[in-house]
Amino acid sequence: MTVAAAGAAALKLPAKGQLKVITTTEDMAALAREVGGDRISVEALARGYQDPHFVEPKPSFIAKLHNADLLISVGLQLEIGWLPPLITQSRNPRIQPGAPGYLEGSQFADILEKPAGGVSRSMGDVHPMGNPHFWLDPNNGRAVAQGIANKLSEMQGADAAYFAQRSKDFAARLAEAEKGWLQKMAPYRGRKVVTFHQSWPNFAKYFGIEVAGYVEPKPGIPPTPSHTLALIGQMKSQGIKVIWVEPYFDTKVPNSIANSVGGEAIVLLPSVGGVPAVTDYFKLFDYDVNLAAGAFQRTDKHAS
Amino acid sequence: MLRQSVVVCLLSVVPAGLFAQASDDIAARFKAMEDRIKALESELSAVKAALAAQPAAPEARVPQPQAQAQPQMQIPIQTSGAPQLSDATARLMNPAISAIGNLVGAAGHNPVDQRQSLDVVESELAFSAAVDPYARADLYLTFGESGVEVEEGYMTFTSLPGGFLVKAGRMRADFGKSNTQHRHVVPWVDRPLVNEYLLGGEDGIRDTGFSISRMLPSAAGVFLDATGELYRGDSSVIFQERTRNDLTAVGHLRAYRDISESTNIDAGFSFARGHHAPATVDGPYAISSPEASIPANVVLLPAAGNFLVSRIYGTDATIRWKPLRRSIYHSFVARTEVMWHHRQEPTGLRKGFGYYGSGEYQFARRWFAGVRIDQSDRLFGPSAEDKQQSVILTYWPSEFSQIRAQFRHGNYQGLGTSNELLFQIQYSIGSHGAHPF
Lengths: 304, 437
Known about the structure:
The complex is a heterodimer of chains A (304) and B (437).
Chain A: H1 2-11, E1 19-23, H2 26-36, E2 40-44, H3 59-66, E3 70-73, H4 83-89, E4 102-104, H5 138-155, H6 160-185, E5 192-195, H7 201-207, E6 210-214, H8 225-238, E7 242-245, H9 252-260, E8 264-267, H10 281-303
Parallel strand pairs in A: 1-2, 1-3, 3-4, 5-6, 5-7, 7-8
Helix pairs in contact in A: 2-5, 5-6, 6-10, 8-9
Chain B: H1 2-13, H2 19-53, H3 56-60, H4 70-73, H5 85-92, E1 96-107, E2 118-132, E3 135-143, E4 148-157, E5 164-172, H6 193-198, E6 206-216, E7 222-231, E8 248-258, E9 263-276, E10 279-281, E11 298-300, E12 308-321, E13 331-345, E14 348-364, E15 367-377, E16 385-398, E17 401-412, E18 416-430
Antiparallel strand pairs in B: 1-2, 1-18, 2-3, 3-4, 4-5, 5-6, 6-7, 7-8, 8-9, 9-12, 10-11, 12-13, 13-14, 14-15, 15-16, 16-17, 17-18
């Protein structure tokens, strides 16, 4: 309830004394809202249903960045194709990399899939610094929220106690919600799934799910017939029935794969705002957990 | 081993009669040198041992107030071949580096386009990094098949007060749209006729100077941006300088508005004023020579008095559509640029007018289809008006490579028509650059 109120407050025009926070994605915005409450105004540049790798660097974003006190990005090169020129063009010294008003959420998170050896683009569009979808693990959500709260306190010392209290409150509510999510997913621990893109390592690890394959032959490379056939073979032999697809990918190929293995392809949301009802960090997990658990349940029934 | 081979080499050039005598002499000298090397080696190992023992020495002394700080201030001496920490940290400060290769081919006859059948028109090396907390630098070196040049190299001051952004160095001038774009970013294999004839071709207005820009206050969600630039006065065939006063001035006003989350409109007005030497042209004006900014058949005449003045006016409009939920699969961009070039000639004012209209539709994740119509007056030689129509198909195997084919029909007044196939293969390696917008 308090979260919805905070979200509604953020939509209003920034009041005097509010820090203006711009985030690259709606997930960072959701976490900032949790800890910033009514002492900050928050706006995200990218929408939750768009591919965060391929956001257009629109001049209207420059205008938003120009007035920002704090820019929070995901980091790990997720926004490398569009954010750097926007920051340069912003004419805002406060948010330049290295300035106090520039914050990368990834520095507070536990990062998975950091390439151990050398990386090359022959592996596809790999993220050389590790998988940037870290917010899909509630533990990282908590850590990033804490990091944002610390940054806000540093920038607006008068409200430090307020931010600390909200961060503590968020952590407590998250811990409570986690019990429900883990309970709901508990029957499916150890299950294998296939995902379209490598967006889900944190989510899968948290719930004990194993990602056994990808619809993309390599990150950023669209599905090919030979890879799709091999994937169907793998899913059949390993009894994998569920495919997780991000909302910005075409569902045609995942659906046809699911049909041939008698399974189901579901559009799971990697981000807050992926559908209109998912307005905050809690609702993101509510939505994904319900959908994922439902898909496991239905495909189990079909099998039996 | 080395010494032996040196001896063998030396011996082999000594005349046979002198062989015995010389070999004794040389052998004695080498013996002496060998002894000296041995002596030096033992001296060196003694020095190494002394150095290795040194760090322990300060502790043995009576502690003094500055004793603790001292070891940190010493310059580290590298005693072995192993890389020191400073090497690794030095690499961390390397700029982002990327390289772009661009192979262009052409088939069919064209009376004005002088490009060859196959040409690696450009290999671009790009470096960029923050200089310090106040500025960043971008450097683009382009290597043609026979030369290197600084395509752009400038510093951007990002932390100025008053909302100003200042760039200093060598830059593509902020005139219209395609003049600001590098060759590998434009959605065609070639440049439109209006750029070739009225704006200096591939090089365009590109010069050394300053650029200052600022957002202007505006209402109704419009983004307004004004840019003023001052350059030395050298830009390919269109602007030249004879004295330090022959500067080129460029102005640009850009208005942008989001119509919806997936559609936006972008419009601009541009102006450029500079000086030029009168020119004569031998035969039809040649375009698209990748190796020379001034076509071989254009002869610039050194004027006795002041250089003459050129003014260029331009307007551009772009509509973009990209549905956010399917942004990686479908998009559409339509763009037009219209230009007027007024050039003082000894015989009076010469006016050139030209435009292009272009559309590009992305119909699948990796496929783009485009059309372009363009028309322009020639600015050199007998006055004439040329027209071209193109259809373009582009395939992106990944975000880092691109294969493009362009069928171009041309109608060149007084010179005939042409049907050509242009094609292009591009790649980008190294650090991930920004996507063009």
